[in-house]
Amino acid sequence: MAVETETAGEARRPRTPAPPIEDGRRLATAARALAVMALALFIAALLNAQSIYKSVYNQPEGTQREVALAFAGPLREVSMALRLDRPRAWFESAIGREHATIDTEIVLPPLPAPTATTPTSDPATTKSPTGDGIPTPAEPAEPERVLFTPKDKMRLWIAGDSLVITPGYAVYRALGRNEAVEKLGDVDGRVATGLTRPDVFNWFRYVAEQVEKRRIHTVVFCFGGNDDHDLMTGVPKGVSLDGFGGLKWTKEYRRRVGGLMDIVNQAGGFVVWLGLPITDDAAAIKARTLCGILGIPSLYVVRVGEAFAEVAHEANRRFYFILTKRLMVRLADAIADLEAAEVLVTGENLGQVSSQTVASLRAIDAVAHHPILRPLIGFDKQEIVDRAKVIGTYEVSKGPEICDLLGPPRPSTHARLDQILAEETKLDLPGLVSSCLSKLVSEKFKTNGPPAQLSSRTAG
């Protein structure tokens, strides 16, 4: 009779329990499931590495972009080495979508060759108006004037960054029903674009395509609102740049502006270039100066230009000032939470501007999570000016602001809350708030004494 036995070692060896089975299916452990998920995400990242790299590359300059590039760059190189970027490229080509390549090439038309001139007399004997014997160069020929008519219309195109939107529509309104002008579509304003970052949007290539395709006679350009930074892509090989506003930076930016105009001019078009907006930190400098005068030890700087431009473009512009005030209150609420503050304080004055009527203030207050205090609410405007002069803040505070630049000529003064809420459905408010707060900068100051105070005589 055979008897099965097992050695002592085999008896002591623990047996691995079989995986549990439920409804005929073998269940996996949580660790194995997580490993499979991680592997799947890594493979997906490799297949989509080019698109990931482009998204990271197009981010604004800063530490976040540099850290992200440190991870996205090697991931893209591995994907290309294994040729795992090809399936996505084939699929995008099949459906007619542009592949996620980073386009930094700036193609500008060559400068026209100088025309040779034959002197009609001996330069040594030619007299000039200044008497220095140097011939006076001939005046350039005046360009031919073209008469546009309802049968032969002027084809007008307005394009640029987000700050072209409001003046662009103003141009359209000024033209009215002029039958000699053909407006080529809507105002082509593109948020977060400019001439320094062709990787984000290549205006040089786009303008060349539009001029050729649309046979444009006149172009209205406006750029500069997003170009106030050191980073500039598409720089020619061998060219080095200094910081924003430096001599080398300015020379390269001037080359791009001139090249964009040449693209239109050499195609027979005429360019109207709207004045560049202020591209420095004038508002932040003003705020820092006021902090020093008033003895305020900290400051939060929030860039809202692009968000305001989107409000002006997407919503009814009659409610622009109330909508942007409500956006600022949302941002102030978030900052108050960071500081554990209990109230918000503003300098609003009843009836001074359209957003400070009783109806407008009621609509603004409705979005606030903190009480809003308005110590100047009942003051006379001249009284506010006089007190600002006494404490030394008037000269710093006066001047144009971005809200005036984008605001409508006839804003609403008696908006109802339901009207405002209806307009806000046209906006991605969570996205606008998140975008503004992502660029939040906190600054601390060493004050030189207590805040400026009004004397009892001036305060009374």
Describe it.
The protein is of the alpha/beta class and 460 residues long. The chain has 18 helices and eleven strands. Strands 3, 4, 5, 6 and 7 form a five-stranded parallel beta sheet that branches. Helix 6 links the parallel strand 3 and strand 4 (181-183). Helix 3 (49-57) packs antiparallel against helix 4, helix 7 runs parallel beside helix 8 (247-265) and helix 11 (320-339) crosses helix 17.
Strand and helix order:
HEEHHHHEHEEHEHEHEHHEHEHHHHHEH
**Text of the CATH class of the largest domain:** Alpha Beta
Q: Any idea of the CATH topology of the largest domain?
A: Rossmann fold
Roughly what fraction of the amino acids lie in strands? 5-15%
> What is the CATH-assigned architecture of the largest domain?
3-Layer(aba) Sandwich
Number of helices: 18
Low-confidence runs (pLDDT<50, min 5 residues)? 117-134, 449-460
Structural class: alpha/beta
For the structure shown, list the relevant keywords.
18 helices; Rossmann fold; 3 domains; five-stranded parallel β-sheet; 460 residues; disordered C terminus; two-stranded antiparallel ribbon; alpha/beta; globular
